[in-house]
Write a sequence for this structure.
């Protein structure tokens, strides 16, 4: 999979510049994995765009949206965990994602 496809939509607004998977990862070269990745990126982008109207929704709509976001987050977690277990995660990406998160919680790296 090209770097362009992997980075499509993932890094535009997050401030993350590293690709999630090691360069040359054999696992991400699988057409099945590439399609799963593209589909999740598209669904995630669609949900984020849909969420722009969140403040105008009734309680039920908001709860449905939260459920959908939780479902895509779970799918991302499973997808990324597979690469972590295979040793295919890019350490730079992991740092760029986790350091700001833990900083926001006021948890320091040791």
């Amino acid at each position: 999979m090209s770097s362009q496809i992997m980075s499509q939509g993932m890094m535009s607004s997050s401030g993350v510049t590293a690709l999630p998977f090691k360069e040359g990862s054999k696992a991400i070269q699988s057409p099945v994995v590439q399609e799963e990745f593209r589909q999740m990126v598209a669904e995630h982008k669609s949900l984020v765009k849909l969420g722009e109207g969140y403040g105008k929704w009734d309680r039920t709509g908001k709860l449905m949206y939260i459920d959908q976001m939780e479902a895509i987050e779970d799918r991302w977690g499973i997808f990324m965990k597979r690469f972590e277990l295979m040793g295919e995660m890019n350490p730079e990406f992991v740092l760029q994602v986790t350091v700001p998160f833990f900083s926001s919680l006021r948890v320091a790296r040791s």
Observations:
- Residues 3-104 form one domain.
- The chain has one domain: 3-104.
- The mean pLDDT is 83.
- The chain has four helices and no strands.
